[in-house]
Design the sequence.
């Protein structure tokens, strides 16, 4: 079956712009989590959604937001981009919250210039 | 809150040699433990996980890990590595109790780069 699909794979944006990243989970998976990966901070949890509701949120500023649709697809949005937002953004899906069968996508590489 | 320390940032090893990647964690509550592998320009792949039961956990690609509650460790081992095992490895924890702000959240270590030389 198809894995977790993240689009786009690569993105270049200018400081001050906003960006929307998309994640399509494995069919039947209802939980979607987002992580930011940078060389300095490593892998950090952004948020988790289940049944269109945000169940958990990491320590990121309000510029980072997300949502989940009725088909479990998820988007995350970053407004007023800063250079420090350059990172690999990873999405993971699982059947349910705490099922711990997380499957990660290949990520979206965001570069802010 | 949980924290994870991977004791080695880089581990070089020769092909067919054994390897151990070390992971210690800190948590005020019971945890679940995971090891993930990341190949260049790819996402994370789950190698193995400890949720409960036997403290020796076997995973994919010949890897295994042992949960040691008293030493709060979850070291990853492979008896004989291959060139294809060259990658970055991440240890992660999550609170095992229901509810609370750690629900479903994975806390990762900083990663260990395993380089297998021929």
Sequence:
């Amino acid at each position: 079956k198809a894995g977790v699909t993240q689009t786009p794979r690569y993105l270049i944006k200018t400081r001050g712009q906003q960006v929307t990243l998309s994640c399509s989970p494995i069919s039947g998976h209802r939980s979607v989590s987002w992580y930011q990966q940078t060389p300095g901070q490593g892998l950090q949890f952004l948020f988790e959604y289940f049944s269109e509701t945000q169940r958990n949120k990491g320590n990121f500023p309000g510029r980072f937001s997300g949502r989940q649709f009725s088909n479990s697809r998820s988007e995350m949005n970053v407004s007023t981009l800063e250079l420090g937002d350059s990172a690999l953004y990873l999405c993971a899906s699982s059947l349910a919250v705490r099922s711990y069968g997380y499957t990660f996508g290949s990520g979206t590489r965001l570069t802010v210039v | 809150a949980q924290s994870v320390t991977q004791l080695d940032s880089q581990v070089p090893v020769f092909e067919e040699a054994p390897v151990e990647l070390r992971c210690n964690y800190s948590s005020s509550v019971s945890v679940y433990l995971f090891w993930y592998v990341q190949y260049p320009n790819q996402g994370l792949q789950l190698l193995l996980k400890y949720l409960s039961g036997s403290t020796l956990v076997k995973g994919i690609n010949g890897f295994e890990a042992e949960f040691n509650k008293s030493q709060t460790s979850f070291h990853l081992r492979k008896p004989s590595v291959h060139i294809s095992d060259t990658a970055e490895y991440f240890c992660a924890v999550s609170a095992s109790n229901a509810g609370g702000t750690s629900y479903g959240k994975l806390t990762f270590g900083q990663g260990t780069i395993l380089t297998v030389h021929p």
